[in-house]
Amino acid sequence: MRRGWPRSLYLGLAAAAAFSLAFSPPLMEHCGRAFAAEVAPADSAATDVVAAALKTLFAGGNPAGVADLKAMQTHVQKLTEQLKKCTVGVTVGMAQGSGVIVSKDGYVLTAAHVAGAPNSRVEFMLSDGKVVRGKSLGLFRTRDAGLMKITDPGDYPFAEMGSSTELKNGQWCLALGHPGGYQEERGMVLRVGRVLLNDLTENVIVTDCTLVGGDSGGPLFDMDGHVIGINSRIAESLTSNMHVPVSTFKETWDRLKNGEDWGHLPGQEPWLGVRGDDKAKDALIAEVVPGSPADDAGIKKGDVIISYDGEYIPDFAALKAKVSSWRPTFGPRGSRPSSTVQVLRGGEVVELRLRLRPRG
User: Fold this and answer.
1) 296 is a catalytic site residue
2) Phi, psi for residue 60 in degrees, rounded to 5
3) What share of the chain is helix, strand, coil (3-state, %, to 5)?
4) Cross-strand bridge partners of residue 285
5) Selected catalytic residue, list 68, 75, 98, 144
6) pTM metric for this prediction
7) Is there a contact between 119 and 136 (Cβ–Cβ < 8 Å)?
8) 144 assigned to active site
9) Domains, the chain, ranges and CATH?
């Protein structure tokens, strides 16, 4: 994903680099803004005054000098002391990622590609090193949104879900996670950066908070400590880091909580390779793309698909829904399992073997 950014943001990137260099822990890594979250106590008496003075700056301004940088640092240090308590390491089988607790009873937001599949066993590493158990729930794969639940009883520290629909370009933000997996001697890693793009059409937030392996599923916070997104993936540039908007989780909460699994990760959308006849009431094939799975299976223009793996196909919409439900799986020696498709051709029923594959 490559997009043009407003020129004013480049000035902000220089300021962000200067801000990160104001922190001095020896564990800085991955990029200029990455540092271990060693937190110093803040002056509580001045907190409200500082917060008021920084409000405009955090909304998209640039620090004017060292005084602004120090004020930002103090705010981030105090905020991180709370945020690190609800940011967790996640282990599903051999895979590791991150997540964030968003309720006292242990619901955890993460990325769908971290969760893997519903009802998978999960281990959560808390900030104090304690391991608790849980399971994965629902997955909205198209947007890379996953929900998990800690099943060990207890009251857990949590972060509130904020709003991602009103984010502005240049707004300051914090990305937390466990790159490379949980490491006791290092702890959680914090990235300070800015929102570069809030694409409501594509349902993605792009920031310059550099992400690496293990950060997936970790939280993106605004400067008030509300979850505004979940770390998802990176593009070609280190400054193009993509996050799932928290609005996605809010809009699909019931489906995720009920363990539904729908959609497909980018590049994994199923491809049949046909076009239906818009005027037909049945699944009449108007075109077959050469070299497509449909072409390989022997489906021809003029065929009417009437059955797919034993399920009646009344119209082209039903065919599209059936294809959309496909998940990429592999049999022995990497072979891809086939489906049985019946077509009506010249008054006769013809049975074909079809192997779908991802469009990517």
Assistant:
1) no
2) 145, 10
3) 25, 30, 45
4) 276
5) 144
6) 0.72
7) yes
8) yes
9) 7-87+158-262 (2.40.10.10), 270-358 (2.30.42.10)
